[in-house]
Amino acid sequence: MAILLVPAIGFFLSPQNNLELSDAIVIISGGETKQRVSEGVELYQAGWAPLLIMSGAARDEGTSNALAMKNMAVAMGVPDEKIVVEEEATNTFENALKVKNIIQAQKITKMILVTSPYHQRRASSVFHLALKGLPIEVMNHSAKDSKWRKNGWWENNWARSITLSELQKILYTVVVGISQDTDST
């Protein structure tokens, strides 16, 4: 029985929804940001939503992750005016809270959340908690990751480590609550 749980963990961490036309695609920075942006741009170009929201602060004193993500999207053909940046969030909780302000200002009622597959469950949970009470539907759609697979995460040290870390962070968020989530991914 325990051996069957190993693959199930990957599928638990990476929930995916059937996509519907939405008001915005929200891309949060973190691991493999280029893949996250590429996936979000593909969704935009396929017509799933007319707006991209990029969220993430600078990891140092340079350009914010959100602005770097916007520049990538513009280079891929997304018009500048179709991208909103949020440049202050330093963790998943802040991504959700800062994007909440944009969602309210833009009157968004349906969004697609793009992040790495191992981060999708926690990001979705945090966004749902932060957006509680708002009339918004959040759909999950992960970018591809070069090292992590939901059916094979146990095959390399890095993937095992990030998987166990995500499980711990999910448990922490459930037990302590969203206001204490302070990770940097």
Q: Could you explain how this protein is built, in words?
A:
It is a single chain. The protein has 185 residues and is an alpha/beta fold. The chain has helices at residues 2-13, 33-45, 65-75, 92-106, 120-130, 157-176; strands spanning 24-28, 52-55, 83-86, 110-114, 137-140. It has a 5-stranded parallel beta sheet with strand order 3-2-1-4-5, sandwiched between helices. α3 links the parallel β2 (52-55) and β3 (83-86). The longest helix has 20 residues, at 157-176.
CATH topology: Rossmann fold
Structure annotation, total helices: 6
Roughly what fraction of the amino acids lie in strands?
Answer: 5-15%
End-to-end span in angstroms? 32 Å
Uncertain spans? 179-185
Count all strands and give the number. 5
Structural class: alpha/beta
SSE order, one letter for each helix or strand: HEHEHEHEHEH
> Main beta sheet, described?
5 strands, parallel
Q: Mean of the pLDDT scores?
A: 92
Short description:
The chain has helices spanning 2-13, 33-45, 65-75, 92-106, 120-130, 157-176, and strands spanning 24-28, 52-55, 83-86, 110-114, 137-140. The protein is of the alpha/beta class and 185 residues long. Strands 3-2-1-4-5 form a 5-stranded parallel beta sheet, sandwiched between helices.
